[in-house]
Amino acid sequence: MSAIVGTGDFKYRIIEDWAKLPDGWSFKEVAAVGVDAKDNVYAFNRGEHPVMVFDGDGNFLRSWGEGQYPRAHGVHMGPDDSIYLTDDGGHFVRKCSLEGKLLLEIGVPGTPAPYMSGEPFHRCTHTALSPKGEVYVSDGYGNAKVHKYSPGGRLLMSWGEPGTGEGEFNIVHNICTDAEGWVYVADRENHRVQVFDGNGKYETQWNNLHRPCGLYMDYTRHPVCYIGELGPSMAVNLKSPNLGPRVSILDHEGKLLSRFGDPHASLGPTGFIGPHGMCVNSRGDLYVGEVSWTLWPGAFPGEPRPENIRCFRKFEKVR
Amino acid sequence: MAIIVGSGDFKYRIIENWAKLPDGWSFKEVGAVGVDAKDNVYVFNRGEHPVMVFDREGNFLRSWGEGRYPRAHGVHMGPDDSIYLTDDGGHFVRKCSLDGEVLLELGVPGKPAAYMSGEPFHRCTHTALSPKGEIYVSDGYGNAKVHKYSPDGKLLMSWGGPGTNPGEFNIVHNICTDADGWVYVADRENHRVQVFDGNGKYETQWNNLHRPCGLYMDYTRHPVCYIGELGPVQPVNRNSPNLGPRVSILDHQGKLLSRFGDMHAGTAPTAFLGPHGLSVDSRGDLYVGEVSWTQWPQFYPDTPRPAYIRSLQKYERVH
Predict the structure, then answer these.
(1) Predicted confidence (pLDDT) per residue in A230-285, tens digit
(2) Among A189, A239, A196, which residue's Cα sits nearest to residue A212?
(3) For chain A, N or C: smaller number of CB within 10 Å?
(4) Dihedrals φ, ψ of B198, to 5°?
């Protein structure tokens, strides 16, 4: 029996062990996921094969990027059969063909801007596209900025500062857009999603979240927002139930539609450890990549980290 | 040269070394502060003399509570020349006369309720009074509840549960009331203050805060709210500027009026380490107690903790 999670119009059947990896291969952990127009799935991971591609049934198709991605972080699928990969360890964004051919590179691999300088990039995290194909980059762990680039990679503008006020950021972790050009930013350690117009003017914010980390929205009008929330990591609340890690699904105005995950971080069938990157296919099925390897010691202090920790699952939408 | 901090109507002159302790005495660190009708100041601290009383010039008047308060946490001054002391290490609340005579005790000293059981108390944190003299207790580190007691200590009701939604808590750290009966709760690790009616019905919340920890409000209609905010202590954002620790002053609807503190934690007169308990006297002067000893290793994990760290400062209102 597969477990069913979620509520209302957003219920899912969990498909365990969905990805059929080649013998001896490992994701180590999955930072982000993308789905192309054919519903093939791109798992951007921190193992030796940074991009692994699967068909909709989890059959392995190909891999690429070996040796080229120090630390996988974010994925965004372009409308032109392209994939935008953001590497926080390498401080760069790459637009690639679906076979891995490099089409555009932003940032200088291996060379971060000074911490909190506001200059791109210091551990950039994710990308999204405007209706005109401009590229937004969230940046990130060592800056508190969103940068906007022309489709060809010229820096147009940046916004944001460190802090907690409107338009300020405390770990800018993921970014999404919709077909009307609104920009949604996971402001992780401020426990909120901020919404901006296409030029960085603050519009509103969604609260009542816990460390929103992974964002996914279909590129439509009024899309639903899928949010991976990290759990408590400080000693003071590590054992508190009901703070995540979990997945929450909100409407485009921030109203909670569905939420699932165990009361605590867990390897149980319905639990999460670090839901960090997500994507939805044409059938509404949800893929969730988790940074389980990184978060294990924080979630389970003193417990030896297993060799292979679950870090990728498919959640098949129940109709 | 006087150092002035704050802005608008809430500017303060920093009075360094205000408290004149008896030779060889120490606060270790200050959990909370109260001011009585004569503007005498009660410093509830974690040293060997848990309650030290000073006049408004900082002259030492008396001490009490020796050996009876395992871990000072919260102070609320009653309207009847009484002081409510909340001890999170001892799991109790005591109403005392200003000379330390115990008038009422809630909880069983040394005996916590089960973690997250919802039963009083598991590391309770603070108290406030309703217009009828009923006692609200925030509880705390090991529960996610506000309890309401009759003036003589009978449990009337409790509300809250762990989580991030309205009415849920993630470290219920401080509590205040106003003369209209509204209840303000510092929901610390949800980075917000929640506002309830006198029976726990959620009314609204204030966001854009960072780990709001200490709350103080005058017991009037539409009081100003003084908030001590803790700073970032996770490796991921410990070095980020502009997140506190700091003091923020908000109007009764949550609008920011004044804010001060350095860009990072520090020991300079204008900086904070852990502004944990605040109180204001009849002239508008502000006292800020800090849990500096506890916070030090969280900010400076590799720097030995000094024998003395400042944990109390007076901020004289500039009129």
Answers:
(1) 999 999 999 999 999 999 999 999 999 999 999 999 999 999 999 999 999 999 99
(2) A189
(3) N
(4) -65, -10
Question: Count H helices, E strands: chain B?
Answer: 1, 25
Gap between the Cα atoms of B189 and A190, Å rounded: 10
| Most A-contacting residue of B71, B189, B238, B263 (CB-CB within 10 A), to test interface | B189
Amino acid sitting at position B164 = T
* Total-model pTM: 0.96
Question: What residue numbers bound the domain in which B87 lies?
Answer: 4-317
Q: Which of B203, B113, B107, B199 is nearest to B157 (CA)?
A: B199
Q: What is the dihedral of CA B20, B25, B30, B36, to 10 degrees?
A: -50
Inter-chain touch B164–A209, beta carbons under 8 Å? yes
Those residues whose C-beta lies under 8 Å from the C-beta of residue A302, and which sit 6 or more positions away, are: none
DSSP label at residue B292: H
Block residue for tokens 């485009």: A252
Q: What is the CA radius of gyration of chain A?
A: 18
Instruction: Please list the alpha-helical segments (H only) found in chain B.
Output: 292-299
Cβ contact, residue pair A192, B205, below 8 Å = no
Candidates A115, A236, A255: best to mutate against B (most CBs of B within 10 A) is A236
**Domains contained in chain B, number:** 1
In total, the C-beta contacts within 8 angstroms joining chain A to chain B are 85
Judged by CB atoms closer than 8 Å, whether chains meet at B243 and A165 is answered as: no
* Rg over CA atoms, chain B: 18
| pLDDT confidence bin for A2, thresholds 50/70/90 | confident
CATH number of B206's domain: 2.120.10.30
Q: Which residue of chain B is at minimal alpha-carbon distance from A298?
A: B234
DSSP states of A138-166 = EEBSS--EEEEE-TTS-EEEEE-EESSST
Under the banding of pLDDT at 50, 70 and 90, the label for residue A199 is: very high
Phi, psi for residue B211 in degrees, rounded to 5: 55, 55
Q: What is the DSSP string of A179-194?
A: TT--EEEEEGGGTEEE
Dump the DSSP string for B33-70.
EEE-TT--EEEEESSSSSEEEE-TT-BEEEEE-TTS-S
Phi, psi of B150 (to 5 degrees): -65, 160
Q: Could B243 and A170 be called an inter-chain contact, meaning their C-beta atoms sit closer than 8 Å?
A: yes
Q: Which residues pair with B158 in a beta bridge?
A: B147
Of all residues in chain A, the one with the smallest CA distance to B161 is A242
**Over the stretch A8-66, which tens digit does the pLDDT of each residue have?**
999 999 998 999 999 999 999 999 999 999 999 999 999 999 999 999 999 999 999 99
